[in-house]
Structures are given as structure tokens and as C-alpha cells.
Amino acid sequence: MDRRPRFRRIAITSLVPAVALFIGLGMASTATASTSPAAQAAAVARAAIKNITAENPHSPTLKVHSRNTGIKGLSQVSSTNWSGYADTGSSFSHVAASWTEPTAASCSRRTTSLAAFWVGIDGYSSSSVEQDGTLIECYEGTAYYYDWWEIYPENDVQVENNVSPGDSITSVVTRSGSSYTMAVTDSTHSGDSFSTTQTYSGAADSSAEWIAEAPTGSSGVEPLTDFGTWNDTGSAVTEGSTAGTISSFTDDEITMDSSSGAVEAQPGALNSSGNAFSVAWKSS
């Protein structure tokens, strides 16, 4: 959703915001007199996501806190909109992970907030991104849950289906040449799954990510919905002809900090297999 993560101090050409939202409330006009108030509210909320996705991307900055020496090592970095892990390298062709869809702890009637969970190729060290996952939107006191995909800058976030908190989700992006297949499988409610294949020739294929994100709109980073904890499991990645886990390649651990330095989302350490971690919500 955010096409680029925003980091402090060291410019990285990407970390594109995964959820780029345009808020055009046009969908509300499609409601008829027979449409229930709940359905009308859901239509307006979904339209609001489109508005949020209309963000003009810019190069993020990155603050490096520590770096291990050696070919494969962990850098601890901070961003104003991403939290999780990213691998860097070349010719990435597959990234995947599974999770149980988190539940919004609370939703304010006064403030729209969002939290996106996704895997992707590119965006961390390039100006494009190919990604998919799920999204929580708190809108006028109600939480809405969706699955989505995006190839930036080719299109805005494409919301596909409603999902539910507690659903078992698997998110995959696979590249073959210049074709990208983005699929989200909801094992709990199979009808909410989707798969789409898109062609894009402008990708760098230089990174892979597993991210919890505060999406960005035209006015900046949106408030981060309190999602409790996001548990990313079964993380897999392929670089060139080598398949592995997050820790198989050069990986960075990303903490989401506010512009004032307050922690908003904190990743935990990778497990011993290097394929699972958690992100804890701390503040909006």
C-alpha cells in the first residue's frame, strides 16, 4: 500500500507506499433506497480507501541504527510508515507469508485509521513495488477488513474482497519474467481469496518485504490502527535460483517510528528458522 517506506537520513530509492489511497466518495452514490445503512456505510468506507491511496510518492529516508559485518547481516532501521523485515539483493522472484488476520482493538468515530499487512517484491530499494495482503480500516467507529493488491506505479491499490478478523491468510507474490502473480488465499472463507497476474516491465526485483504499514495519503502518513500483534509465519523468498527464508539473505529489521521518534510498531526478532516474527502495535 505504501509505495515507499519513509526512512530517516539515508535515502533509499524506494520502500514505496504499499497502500496508496484516493478518497473519492463516489461509491456512496451507488447506494439505493433499499440498501441497508450498514451496506451504505461499508460502501463509503471502501470509497474512502481509494482516496487514501492517491498519495504522491517520494524517496524515503532511512536511519540505520546498527549493522553487522559480513555478507549476510542484519541492519536495524527505522521508518515512519513500515515495520517488519526486508531482504535486499537482486532477481527476487517469489515472496510469501501466512498470518491470522488481526483484530482492531478499537475504532474512533472521529479519526480514520488504517493498518496494512503485506508481502512484496521491490519498494525497499527501488521506486516500484509489486505487493498484496490485507488491510484494516477504522472508519467512523467501525472496523472494515479487506484483501488487496498493487503494482506501483502502474495502478492504485486494488481492493478485492472483504475478509474477517481471525481468518487464516496466505499472501504470495511470484514473478516470471515481467509477469507478476499476486494471490491472497483466505483459508477460512475461500470465497474471499483472489489471484491476479499482471505484466510490468519497470521493476527492479531488488528486494523482498514482509511489512505492517501505516498507509499514506495526500496529507501524509495516516494514523495506524491498533491491531494488537501481527504474527507473520512461514515466510519464504527466492532470489535468483536460491530459495530460502528471511534470514537466508541480507535482511533489515524495520521499526516504525513517528516523526518525533516515538515507536509506533515494533518488530520482534526472527525465530530460529528465520521464517517468522511478530510486529506489536505501540501507538498511532
Average pLDDT confidence is 84
CATH superfamily: Peptidase G1
Task: Please report the number of helical segments.
Answer: 1
| Largest sheet, strands/sense/barrel | 18 strands, mixed
List segments where confidence is low: pLDDT < 50 over at least 5 consecutive residues.
8-15, 20-33, 54-61, 67-72
Short description:
It contains one helix and 22 strands.
What does this structure look like?
The chain has 284 residues and is mainly beta. The chain is 6% helix and 49% strand. The protein contains 1 helix and 22 strands. The longest helix has 16 residues, at 37-52. The protein starts with a strand and ends with a strand. Mean pLDDT is 84; it is low at 8-15, 20-33, 54-61 and 67-72.
Q: In terms of topology, how is this protein built?
A:
Layout: E1 2-4, E2 10-11, E3 16-18, H1 37-52, E4 61-67, E5 74-79, E6 82-88, E7 92-100, E8 113-121, E9 129-139, E10 142-152, E11 158-162, E12 168-176, E13 179-186, E14 194-199, E15 207-213, E16 216-217, E17 220-221, E18 229-239, E19 242-244, E20 250-257, E21 263-267, E22 277-281
